[in-house]
Amino acid sequence: MNIIFELLTPASFTLALAVVLVAGTVKGMVGFAMPMIMISGLGIFLPPEIALAGLILPTVATNGFQALRHGRAAAVESIKRFRVFLLVGLVFLLASAQLVRFLDPQTMLLMLGVPVSIFALIQLFGVRMTLAEPSQKIEAGVGAFAGFIGGMSGVWGPPTVLYLTALNTPKADQMRVQGVIYGMGAVALVIAHLGSGVLNRESIPFSALLILPALTGMWIGGKLQDRIDQTTFRKITLAVLLVAGLNLVRRGLGL
After folding, report:
1. 122 exposed, middle or buried (CB, 10 Å; 0-12, 13-18, 19+)?
2. C-beta separation of 164 from 178 below 8 A
3. Which position has the higher pLDDT, 7 or 144?
4. What is the DSSP letter of 247?
5. Nearest one of 186, 183, 141, 188 to 162, comparing CA atoms
6. What is the pLDDT of residue 128?
7. Is 71 exposed, middle or buried (0-12, 13-18, 19+ CB in 10 A)?
8. Which long-range contacts (CB under 8 A, 24 or more apart) does 6-9 make?
9. Maximum separation of any 2 CA atoms in the chain, in Å
10. Average pLDDT of every residue of the chain
11. All residues at 6 or more sequence positions from 123 whose CB lies less than 8 Å from its CB, including other chains
12. What is the model's pTM?
């Protein structure tokens, strides 16, 4: 029997599905935050390594859907536009993914919780970075940071969103670009963690079962986007992320 499912009671498995459904709904609304919500939510009752494995396949599926929403040609154009970010991020993601098994669990919790908390605080307080024009050096730096964090935690959204926002990227374009960047990163994450051992014959079935609630959430989020004020909903989401991130920090500090 799969050892992961042995660790899960019916109640905890139902809770895992609920966490993923909420995460997918938020992603359908704003185009990001699914990995952060999943790693924060699943990390409350699952070991960090299993929580990380669980988010990988749903992340691939939902980002593929998001990236291709406006067609293949638009997705290819986004890849060309952000090729520096993607290439540098890929290198750092593949490298940092190999560190997962060597990290102390509490250290990993801190490395997950701190970026989530900082990102949520920055956004909640309305701080916005602005770039007059694209810079390959800045793009490479942000890509490196995003890839490094993403390889260990599966969460590379915060620096990506901050960079796209700083460029004043139009909403439709930003949604597509996020899907392309996150999608390619998710594929790289699969490859990296097949190598690291995080994604294995024990964890793959668990991750695969989370695809359906993630896609269902995406569909719900897309419907809600037309009916609910997105700014208000995003602020509520960021508040929840802040609480979840601070909880991970608390656990990482052993409090």
Report:
1. middle
2. yes
3. 144
4. H
5. 141
6. 66
7. exposed
8. 7/46, 7/50, 8/46
9. 56
10. 84
11. 234, 238
12. 0.75
Residue positions counted in the chain: 255
The token duo for 38 is 């999943």
Q: H helices of the chain, where?
A: 3-7, 10-30, 34-42, 48-67, 72-81, 83-97, 105-124, 136-153, 157-166, 171-196, 203-209, 211-225, 230-252
- What pLDDT was estimated at residue 87? 92
Tell me the residue type at 95: A
Contacts of 4 (CB under 8 A, 6+ apart): 50, 202, 203, 205, 206
The closest alpha carbon to 190, from 138, 2, 74, 182, belongs to 182
Task: Specify the amino acid at residue 70.
Answer: H
Residue type present at position 52: L
Quote the DSSP letter at residue 142: H
Tokens, residue 163:
């960079």
- Give residue 192's identity as a one-letter amino acid code: A
Residue type, 77: E
Contacts of 50 (CB under 8 A, 6+ apart): 4, 7, 42, 203, 206
pLDDT-derived band of residue 230, with 50, 70 and 90 as boundaries? low
Distance CA 221, CA 92 (A): 31
Give the position of tokens 């007059």: 132
Say if residue 207's pLDDT is above 80: yes
